[in-house]
Design a protein that fits this description.
Strand content: 25-35%
Shape: globular
Largest sheet: 7 strands, antiparallel
Oligomer: single chain
Radius of gyration: 24 Å
Helix content: 25-40%
Strand order of the largest sheet: 3-10-11-4-9-7-6
């Protein structure tokens, strides 16, 4: 037992022992040990820091490629990083992205997204980016090799599905896909309509 009144350091906090609140186990980014205590006045555990850590730990969807879900059957999915310019990530955080006409190509061992539209940043001036330039994707070599074989040999298409922020970083979800024929699209549309009608009827029944 430490002596009363003696100072004790706990994960960046330095307060007299008798001023410590009850220990609370914390699981946030700066706390890798379970012996920590959340203390008022700590720059990590203060309300501002707490909220910031919580926000960064969440995934925030920025754009969804609805056309891909309608036109293709989606199979294996992969998470990719993106090589972006400063004005591009600022526009992405503002939600000014469109994946509708984008697709992924693999050439010479490098995955690239083409046709992804990122609007110019309002305060970018002459340093603004090209809106639909090709952008490199970050994947492990074994993943690139697997995707390359799937597209060249097995006839899959590699399509962007979703762009999101994770821990402050832009991430792209891509999927191996195969195109649907007109009959499949109609059947899927009928199934969606039927599901929507069932959900509507259930809600109406619950209200009554």
């Amino acid at each position: 037992m430490p002596m009363r009144g003696r100072a004790q350091t706990v994960v960046g906090c330095f307060l007299p022992f008798d001023l410590r609140p009850q220990p609370v186990f914390c699981t946030f980014a700066h706390l890798q040990q379970r012996c920590c205590t959340v203390l008022a006045g700590c720059r990590f555990c203060s309300d501002t820091g707490f909220v910031k850590i919580m926000e960064m730990s969440k995934e925030k969807t920025i754009a969804v490629n609805r056309k891909a879900r309608h036109e293709y059957d989606l199979f294996d999915r992969y998470e990719c990083g993106l090589v972006l310019q400063g004005t591009e990530i600022k526009s992405i955080r503002q939600g000014k992205v469109n994946l509708k006409d984008s697709y992924v190509s693999i050439r010479q061992g490098q995955a690239v997204i083409k046709g992804m539209h990122i609007s110019p940043y309002a305060f970018g001036n002459r340093f603004n980016h090209d809106e639909i330039r090709d952008r490199s994707l970050l994947l492990h070599k074994r993943e690139i090799l697997k995707l390359d074989q799937a597209t060249r040999i097995k006839g899959y298409t590699l399509v962007p599905v979703r762009l999101y922020l994770s821990k402050g970083l832009a991430k792209l979800e891509v999927a191996l896909a195969k195109g649907r024929d007109l009959h499949d699209k109609r059947e899927n549309a009928k199934a969606r309509d039927a599901k929507r009608e069932i959900e509507k009827a259930m809600k109406s029944r619950i209200r009554n």
